[in-house]
Design goal:
heterodimer, A: MetI-like fold, 2 domains, 73% helix, globular, B: mainly alpha, MetI-like fold, transmembrane (chain A), cell membrane (chain A), transmembrane helix (chain A)
């Protein structure tokens, strides 16, 4: 180290001066790099997060003077049946989209990674494609598929002799929440598929050989060899998906905006419409719902993190 | 070790084909429906158009103001992308390869954001932007989004920067280069691959961002492409001009499809890079 730094010091004849200049430049460089970014980060991320705690204690429509109401918003929140209904929808979506995405992407990944089919790389490119599309594009596309009069789904059913007339899947309280699931799965599966393919391709082929000699089926190989070996990655994927589905509402905002009669309302969308919707705005109550989401999401993340850490140490 | 192909293998292959069709067919369908007349459109969902109505694309372009919303999108995405990527790159360098007081603290503060779900900050962020007079302004959302998702992209790039040999800076310093020259002339060029990955991800996130522009932009002439398409779909309840809407949807997807064709390898590699880190 000293051999290397000596020439630096001697590079310019008055070595001390040069060093001072270099030190000054380094400090300036660090300041110029970090100050704008941290200022922006503090102002636009940290400060609003802190503020959301305070706002949740206010009664405020954003125009008149805010009134401090303490924990009233949280009291109302517990009594608000719309909150509980929305929470139920959150749980339905989380409990269906997550396993569907994981199962589909695992099976597809296993087929691509282990079967040596032709056109494997083409399949990869196609499967990943929906992940680059915007939520608006995916949602509009699926709204077209579900449409009553010209939708692909009803037309497809008619091909199989099932004629349900102009049934609009997103417009009926009985089916709307279930119709939210396929677009979410369709849009997300490709991403996890690519992650699982890459994870599976690092498993040495020799691990499968004994199983093949004993005539183990692909189903047994997938669930008894592949899945346990990539379990850490599957767990992270499950965590990501669960939290993402739980807080996501953009797709529902575009597909149904919570309707018909609230049958697809989720917590995030409920909060969004109270704050930014067409009715009377209540920033305090919206922030209280935001805090509820915050608490659920952070608690879930901490719990799952701890749970996975313990499980990993057993190996 | 080669196994014999069986009937079972063939049936699994069908599964791959089905999933592919479920992705490609809806897109293809939107494309050929966008070339029909409205009468044909309602008459038979499956039939191909008899005459190709390319004028639907022109109609969509003018009716939905796609030209101006594309320009808005270029401005919003372009500036946020350049500013955001530069800030990420220079901070990744400072935070991984330079030693200074308070570095650990800075890392800690940034990593905190990985724990914040963000959804609870939507309302205060809006009030803040309103107080700063940054609502209903493209520059406003540029300012907001240049600073978003820092931690994720910093982690992505710092992995890259760590893998560069330490001697780079030392030999640069021997040659009398200042730290500014070292960063711009040595480090940045060597990190091109990593920076491209970060830029691709930022591009996709920004181009596809709906919620931010939807909350902050009120005037139709300031809409980005996503908001413009959403508003176009909302008026379909009152006027059933679906073929034009389909054409509009195709137009918004074209830039992404082109990018995907050229950069699919970077995109798929970057996706897993981010996932392993995140």
């Amino acid at each position: 180290m000293s051999e290397l730094s000596n020439p630096v010091a001697n590079a310019a004849v008055p070595g001390v001066n040069w060093n001072r200049k270099a030190k000054f430049q380094k400090r300036l460089f660090i300041l110029l790099a970090t100050v704008p970014m941290f200022a922006g980060y503090i102002v636009f991320t940290l400060y609003p997060n802190l503020l959301s705690v305070y706002y949740s204690l206010l009664n405020w429509d954003g125009i008149k003077e805010p009134v401090f109401v303490g924990l009233d918003n949280f009291g109302n929140l517990l009594k608000d049946e719309f909150v509980w209904r929305a929470l139920r929808h959150n749980l339905i979506l989380m409990g269906t989209v997550t396993p569907a995405v994981i199962l589909i992407s695992l099976i597809l990944a296993y087929l691509i990674a282990n079967k040596g089919y032709r056109f494997s790389s083409l399949f990869k490119v196609i499967f990943f494609f929906p992940n680059i599309l915007s939520t608006v594009a995916i949602s509009l596309l699926w709204a077209f598929v579900y449409d009553g009069s010209f939708g692909l789904l009803n037309a497809g059913l008619r091909l199989f002799g099932v004629d349900i007339g102009n049934y609009y899947w997103l417009g009926e309280t009985g089916t709307a929440i279930w119709a939210i699931i396929p677009p979410s799965v369709w849009g997300a599966a490709g991403f996890y598929f690519v992650i699982f393919v890459n994870a599976m391709s690092t498993i040495p082929k020799s691990l499968y050989e004994a199983a093949i000699l004993e005539g183990a089926s692909h189903r047994i190989r997938l669930f008894n060899i592949t899945v346990p070996l990539i379990m850490p990655i599957i767990r992270i994927a499950v965590l990501f998906l669960m939290l993402g589905v739980f807080k996501g509402f953009e797709n529902i905002l575009i597909l149904t905006n919570g309707g018909p009669s609230g049958s697809t309302e989720v917590l995030g969308l409920y909060m969004f419409n109270i704050a930014f919707g067409s009715g009377i705005h209540n920033y305090g109550y919206a922030s209280a719902i935001g805090m509820l989401l915050f608490i659920i999401l952070v608690a879930a993340k901490l719990t799952i993190d701890r749970f996975t850490a313990n499980r990993d140490s057993e190996f | 070790m080669q196994e014999r192909r069986t009937f079972v293998d063939a049936s699994w292959y069908v599964l791959l084909l089905i999933w592919s069709v479920s992705i490609l067919f809806p897109l293809l369908w939107v494309f050929y429906e966008s070339l029909k007349t409205n009468q044909e459109f309602f008459h038979d969902v499956w039939k191909l158009p008899t005459d190709l109505q390319w004028m639907n694309y022109g109609d969509a372009w003018t009716e939905y103001g796609i030209g101006s919303s594309m320009l808005n999108t270029v401005y919003y995405v372009g500036v946020s992308l350049i500013v955001g990527t530069f800030l990420t790159a220079i901070n990744a360098y400072v935070l991984t390869r330079l030693e200074f007081k308070g570095k650990k603290l800075l890392w800690g503060v940034i990593m905190l954001s990985l724990f914040l779900p963000g959804i609870n900050a939507l309302v205060p962020q809006y009030i803040l932007m309103r107080d700063l007079h940054l609502t209903n302004s493209l520059t406003g959302i540029v300012v907001l989004d240049s600073f978003s998702e820092i931690a994720f992209y910093l982690l992505m790039l710092s992995g890259f920067m760590q893998s560069l040999p330490k001697e780079l800076e030392e030999s640069g310093a021997i040659d009398g280069a200042s730290i500014f020259q070292i960063f711009f002339k040595i480090i940045l060029p060597l990190c091109t691959a990593g920076i491209v990955t970060v830029a691709i991800f930022k591009f996709l996130a920004l181009y596809n961002n709906f919620l931010g522009p939807f909350i902050y932009l009120g005037d139709p002439d300031k809409y980005t492409i996503g908001v413009a398409m959403y508003q176009a779909s909302q008026i379909m309840q009152y006027k059933a001009d679906w073929v034009t809407l389909f054409a509009g949807l195709m137009i918004t997807m074209i830039p992404l499809v082109l990018m995907y064709i050229f950069l699919q390898r970077n995109i798929m590699e970057g996706a897993t890079l981010g996932a392993v880190k995140g």
